[in-house]
Amino acid sequence: MSYNIAIDGPAGAGKSTIAKLVAKRMHFIYVDTGAMYRAMALYLIRRGVGAEEKEKIEKVCQEAQISIEYQNGEQIVLLNGENVNGLLRTEEVGNMASVSSPNRAVREKMVQIQKELAEKADVVMDGRDIGTCVLPDAQVKVYLTASTKVRAMRRYKELEEKGETCDLAKIEADIAERDHRDMTRELAPLQQAKDAVLIDSSEMTIEEVAEKIIALCK
Ligand code: DC
């Protein structure tokens, strides 16, 4: 049986950085499920589907084949065979992912792929519904969070490093809006699983958080 570590939490809590590090140290595969929802969002944007067009999202999402490959330990997301890794981390794609991910057809497609990955290999999987829906039997579950201010500042720095012009107040407002959408949606809302350990990373270093999670696996 494979060993699964589920990490859930809101945007900007440090999930992907931490999950990647824990996966490396434990020699597990890292599965970034947000990137899969982002790839689907990119497809919808490319097809000109509007955020509010629920029925169209349901229909058009069926045309997108999302798969995952690993090259030198890095997760590559393929959208209909194209490596789209470099196109997923924009605010436009993130916002579309937040709007389209509550869709049942989108979720069913993604959750199936995620479950198959975790059955086959030891994984650290991060997302919003991993401990609650995708891997309810994961051996370790973590709910990783940080204050809205800290998360907005982290995203601001990330975008600034990439040379994108950004506005801190707008990022903070977007994060608050996205949190609200992710936490109040009908299907698979973001919530702490009953058996998940809560970690607030606001005042913690990456190293401290990673060590805490690794200690939970012993
Ligand atoms: O973690 P992220 O910012 O890359 O995720 C993008 C969006 O995808 C986020 O707003 C919610 C959605 N998502 C989801 O619904 N379920 C997951 N397991 C992961 C992400």
Summarize the structure.
It contains nine helices and eight strands. By secondary structure, it is of the alpha/beta class.
Question: If you had to describe this structure to a student in words, what would you say it looks like?
Answer:
Helices cover 49% and strands 17% of the residues. It has helices at 15-26, 33-46, 54-60, 91-100, 104-120, 130-134, 148-161, 168-184, 206-216; strands at 4-8, 29-32, 66-71, 74-79, 82-83, 123-127, 140-145, 197-200. It contains 9 helices and 8 strands. The radius of gyration is 16 Å and the shape is globular. It has 218 residues and is α/β, with parallel strands linked by helices. It starts with a strand and ends with a helix. The model has no long low-confidence stretch (mean pLDDT 95). α7 crosses α8 (168-184). Strands 2-6-1-7-8 form a 5-stranded parallel beta sheet, sandwiched between helices. It has a 3-stranded antiparallel beta sheet with strand order 3-4-5. The site of 2'-deoxycytidine-5'-monophosphate (DC) has 15 residues, from α2, α4 and α8. 2'-deoxycytidine-5'-monophosphate binds at residues 11, 33-34, 37-38, 94, 97-98, 101, 127-130, 178, 182.
Total count of strands: 8
Distinct helical segment count: 9
**First-to-last CA distance:** 17 Å
* Ligands bound, unique: 2'-deoxycytidine-5'-monophosphate
- The helix-strand sequence is EHEHHEEEHHEHEHHEH
Percentage of residues in DSSP E strands:
15-25%
Report on the biggest sheet: 5 strands, parallel
How would you describe the shape? globular
Q: What class, by secondary structure content?
A: alpha/beta
Major β-sheet strand ordering: 2-6-1-7-8
